[in-house]
Design goal:
The complex is a heterotrimer of chains A (283), B (293) and C (435). Chain A has 283 residues and is mainly α. In chain A, helix 1 runs antiparallel to helix 14 (249-280). Helix content of chain A is 69%, strand content 0%. The radius of gyration of chain A is 23 Å and the shape is globular. A two-stranded antiparallel sheet of chain B has the order 1-2. In chain B, 71% of the residues lie in helices and 2% in strands. Chain B has 293 residues and is an all-alpha fold. Chain B contains twelve helices and two strands; from the N terminus they run αββααααααααααα. Chain C is an alpha/beta fold. Chain C has 20 helices and nine strands. In chain C, strands 1, 2, 3, 4, 5, 6, 7, 8 and 9 form a nine-stranded mixed β-sheet that branches. Chain C is globular and about 70 Å long. The chains are: A mainly alpha (283), B mainly alpha (293), C alpha/beta (435). Chains in contact: A-B, A-C, B-C. Chains A and B meet through helix 1, helix 4, helix 5, helix 6 and helix 8 of A and helix 1, helix 3, helix 4, helix 5 and helix 7 of B.
Chain lengths: 283, 293, 435
């Protein structure tokens, strides 16, 4: 960092390791459970070290056999659906929010704050409460069982707009004035100055929105009418028996781990972009 | 917080906002209005017979002691979740930003739990904390603590607060990290050269510069605690024991979703929305003054 | 030339119209191995005839699929068949314009349908006061008693003799505790096992109006002296550490399988889990009862789900639904389903077929559930149908938890259940008076 303070560095590592242990422990448990037999998992307490069934569990999970899922959609296909939906949602949300936040912060027009609050209020009503009427709108528009139906209603949220608004407010005015003096119009400014500056925020939001889209459960359940449009989280949920019948916990966990790999990749790739963004935009 | 410099254009801002406004008008406001309309109606589950009942649904809420008690439960829960969530992640983010070795590993491992699907997360927490078979309960008992969140209200509240905070740590951590990493290194170096020690540097420089992010997370965490935590309650305690962890939004979800009581659920949603909008206005009005842009 | 072309075209169009199979949509909530069972049923039916094709779609848990169905219905594209859990029966019944009674569907389609062929304790739950069957019993289970034979042996109890009465259960629990057992007894689905099924098993009212089957103006009666006595007994056992509360719904089942709790009352559907995962000798027995109550043991009450037929579909599609129901209730298919899943057979013929096949001898304990149901039912034991029942079950959980936690007495809790439950029942009655 700035100066060398070994004690502080040691403390940092200690705190971080503790943090990782606490935060990542459930993940570790998932992994351990995915390498055991399902009988071992229900004993008290659950074993804490990985077992020896990794290959067979993961093969079963991937092929959709042995999970007792009764699912006709193999995991691979569901992951593709999840991937496409997550990408559309993340990119869609970031795009429209960048534009809206830009308009709200950098322009004066009647009803400016009204629109900000209107956008913001979308955070205040959980999806489950309005899901019935939303379904009707989607159905009336003929968007059922399509990627459009899966993704567009989920783009309606304010988190991204709010974040960009926060960020844009910190951009020094000198930059805007400089651009204006150079004769650049607002869109030029947006494209060449604002967006590059927002790189870290965009990267962070991309991770969040991708995972949000990836983990969608309830909305796809409602809006799809055939199982081949099911994203992967539904596949996991249907293996978790809500009733009393026996469950293959180990296969469930293996599927869950498989389902966590693409988001993990996104997180790691975005990390690189963080650093890159920083280096490029050193103010 | 008003920007002094802005662009002039009669039509451009409308065009820029159009996509988002269109989407939220169609997919939020229109359905939301219909959902909230149900608060003054009473209908059967399928909507084949609908009655207008005025404020009856609201009156029923007011007369229900357990509903009023859940205001208190919600206040405690939300405060704990927001405060713990933000402070822990800030701490982790500051330290993660400091170190060079192993940075990528730490950051990935701290952000990754956010990728756990909520369905799986709920199950994992039950696994860990089940009073007898859970791994963590087992250790707690070894330490002499008789963990029983099924009958002990405090244990139950601890459990759900921990589960809710856990989920948010990754989220907050990610944004704090982004905020920290967008602070120009030159500023930090200049302060260090001036002789300011890390602790002072943090509070007089880094934290104020981080305040837009902190404000963002404060609002988002509060909204999260009020609105998005019912899945965790449902997975962990279902509001029990008794009603000790029955937060307002859980009842909204339960009534509307499991019990098919749309009118009651919509009325509760209205109440909840009013509360949170009020809280948000307060935050914007009073807390945002302290934010440095 | 032209003739040949016409002939080919005719043949082609014949082939095409023969392919126009009527699809019947079936939304269900069966997960894991039961999901496979559903798919196999559909496959079997589709293979057995060529006019109709049943398409099962997993639509989430019972409440998720209910929400899906409500949303779809309001948008005009509901499925034909919907699986609804037993506590949603009153809700479905009250939505008169949204459903078509199964009895009517079968009659209109000309399918032979004899309500007497069905086990009355199973089908009665889903039958209207007039005798018309409203929904088709599909996956029904009932309340039974499981116990850990190895733990019994270690405590000096006879492992082959299950405690048949509640006093015997208490004695067994005391012996287990003396032997060092930390959790002699626990219960799952406490509302269902300790209040609902308990009432039917002792032939006492759970609610007025034949537990709600005879009218929407039913009111709860669970604070009767017998109920108070039973909950007080359990509360006392809890104080002595003989009964340990392990959570709502089926969460406590894990403690039985792991060997932690030695006795548990829960669903008969739990059997498959126990068979697979228990590392000890176990036994199944009928639910315990109080021998001094006249009429006990009567029969227990079912849980599970049934299939409802949604309104607004074409006559031809309803025919397909009817044929599917006939297929599913045929003795062979029923018997196979019963053996595979542990759910109760819905017809006496299926039960007899299973018995003849020697299944019960090879799998001891699997006939306990059925034997509890093959009885002539009374008005108080036919079943339960109350509105807003999901919420009432939660109230039961909340109040009972306060008893186990020592915060309320049994009488206070049961009185509270009656008071809060009746408020909900009144509201339900008011909301559904019309139509």
């Amino acid at each position: 960092m700035v100066e060398r303070r070994p004690f502080l560095t040691m403390l940092s590592h200690a705190v971080l390791i503790l943090g990782v242990l606490v935060v990542a422990f459930p993940l570790y448990l998932t992994f351990v459970a995915s390498t055991q037999t399902s009988q071992a998992i229900v004993q008290t307490p659950m074993p804490l070290l990985p077992g020896g069934h990794l290959i067979e569990n993961y093969t079963a999970a991937w092929n959709g056999t042995g999970g007792g899922s009764g699912s006709k959609a193999p995991v691979g296909q569901m992951m593709v659906v999840s991937l496409i939906s997550a990408l559309i949602i993340a990119i869609g949300k970031i795009t429209i929010s960048l534009l809206s936040a830009f308009a709200i912060v950098y322009f004066r027009f009647p009803g400016r704050m009204f629109f900000f609050w209107a956008i913001f209020i979308t955070l205040m009503l959980p999806v489950e409460v309005r899901i019935g009427p939303t379904y009707k709108v989607v159905s009336d528009l003929g968007m059922l069982n399509s990627y459009a139906g899966l993704t567009i209603p989920l783009i309606a949220s304010a988190t991204a707009t709010f974040l960009f608004r926060q960020f844009f407010l910190t951009v020094p005015e000198e930059l805007v004035e400089a651009a204006r003096m150079d004769g650049a119009g607002p869109m030029r400014f947006f494209k060449d100055v604002l967006v590059p500056l927002s790189a870290t925020s965009i990267a962070a939001l991309f991770v969040i929105q991708f995972i949000y889209g990836w983990n969608q459960y309830l909305w796809p359940l409602l809006v799809t009418t055939s199982e081949d449009m099911y994203p992967v989280v539904i596949g996991i949920k249907r293996m978790i028996s809500g009733g009393d019948s026996e469950m293959q916990w180990n296969i469930v966990m293996a599927t869950a781990v498989l389902a966590m790999i693409p988001p993990a990749l996104v997180v790691m790739l975005m990390q690189k972009w963080f650093v890159k963004g920083l280096v490029d935009t050193e103010k | 917080m008003e920007k002094r410099v802005f662009f002039r254009s009669a039509w451009l801002p409308w065009v820029l906002m159009a996509p988002q406004v269109a989407v939220i008008a169609l997919f939020f406001f229109w359905p939301a209005a219909q959902a909230l309309l149900q608060s003054v109606q009473q209908s059967d589950a399928f909507g084949t017979s609908v009655d207008w009942v005025g404020l009856d649904n609201f009156r029923n809420l007011w007369n229900d002691d357990t509903y009023l008690a859940s205001f208190y439960t919600t206040a405690i829960f939300s405060t704990l979740v927001a405060v713990l969530g933000i402070s822990v992640s800030l701490l982790l983010a500051v330290f993660a930003d400091r170190i060079v070795k192993g940075a990528l590993a730490y950051k990935t491992l701290l952000i990754w739990p956010y990728a756990v699907a909520p369905a799986v997360a709920g199950v994992l927490w039950l696994f860990m904390f089940a009073p007898s078979v859970g791994v963590v309960s087992y250790w707690l008992r070894a330490l002499g603590i008789d963990w029983n969140h099924l009958l002990n209200g405090t244990h139950a509240m601890t459990l759900v607060v921990m589960a809710a905070v856990w989920k948010q740590i990754s989220y907050n951590f990610l944004f704090f990290l982004a905020g920290l990493q967008s602070i120009p290194k030159s500023l930090i170096e200049a302060a260090a050269i001036d002789g300011a020690r890390p602790w002072r540097r943090f509070w007089t420089m880094v934290f104020p510069l981080l305040s837009p992010t902190t404000f963002f997370l404060l609002v988002i965490n509060m909204v999260y605690a009020f609105f998005d935590t019912f899945a965790i309650i449902d997975a962990a305690t279902q509001g029990g024991p008794g009603k000790d962890t029955a937060i307002l939004v859980y009842k909204v979800y339960f009534d509307g979703f499991k019990a098919m009581d749309m009118g009651g659920s919509a009325a509760q949603s209205v109440v909840l929305m009013v509360i949170v909008v009020a809280l948000t206005v307060v935050q914007f009005r009073f807390v945002e003054k302290k934010v440095n842009y | 030339m032209k003739l040949k072309f016409a002939a080919v075209a005719l043949a082609a169009s014949c082939a095409l119209s023969a392919q126009a199979v009527t699809e019947v949509q079936w939304w269900h909530s069966m997960t894991a191995v039961n999901g496979e069972w559903v798919n196999d049923l559909a496959k079997g039916f589709n293979a057995s005839q060529s006019n109709y094709k049943i398409v099962p779609t997993y639509k989430g848990t019972y409440d998720e699929s209910m929400t899906s169905a409500v949303a779809a219905f309001r948008a005009g594209n509901a499925p034909h068949i919907l699986q609804v859990f037993e506590v949603g029966t009153a809700t479905m019944m009250a939505s008169k314009n949204a459903i078509v009674p199964v009895g009517k569907v079968m009659k209109d389609a000309g399918q032979k349908f004899d309500p007497k062929a069905y086990i009355s304790a199973v089908a009665g739950y889903y039958t209207a006061p007039s005798g018309e069957m409203l929904s088709f019993p599909f996956n029904s289970s009932t309340t039974v008693f499981y116990y850990n034979k190895d733990a019994f042996k270690a405590a000096g109890l006879d492992p082959e003799k299950a405690p048949g009465s509640w006093p015997e259960v208490a004695l067994a629990a005391a012996k287990l505790k003396a032997n060092g057992h930390k959790c002699p007894l626990t219960v799952a689905w406490q509302g269902w096992t300790q209040l609902e099924s308990f009432s039917a098993w002792h032939n006492v009212e759970f609610a007025t109006k034949a537990n709600g089957l005879a009218g929407m103006d039913a009111r709860m009666k669970v604070n009767s002296p017998l109920h108070v006595r039973h909950i007080e007994n359990l509360a006392n056992m809890a104080k002595q550490g003989l009964f340990v509360y392990k959570g709502r719904a089926n969460v406590p089942e894990a403690t039985f399988v792991s060997g932690e709790c030695a006795m548990i009352t829960t669903s008969s559907g739990f059997y498959g889990n126990v068979k697979k995962n228990a590392k000890f000798a176990y036994g199944l027995a009928p639910l315990p009862y109080y021998p001094d109550v006249p009429g006990a043991p009567q029969n227990t009450v079912i849980g599970g789900a049934s299939l409802w037929v949604m309104a607004g579909k074409k006559a031809d599609e309803y025919k397909g639904v009817a044929e599917f129901f006939t297929y599913v209730s045929s003795p062979e298919v029923q018997s196979a389903s019963h053996k595979r899943t542990g759910y109760l057979p819905i017809t006496t013929a299926a039960f007899q077929l299973t018995e003849k096949s020697g299944f019960y001898k090879e799998n001891p304990g699997t006939d306990v559930a059925v034997n509890q149901m093959i009885r002539k039912v009374t008005d108080k034991s036919r079943g339960i149908r109350l509105g807003n029942y999901v919420q009432i079950r939660t109230i039961e959980d909340e109040e009972l938890e306060q008893v186990w936690g020592g915060k309320k007495s049994a009488k206070e809790a049961l009185d509270a259940i009656v008071k809060r439950g009746n408020e909900l029942l009144e509201r339900f009655e008011k909301a559904n008076k019309k139509g």
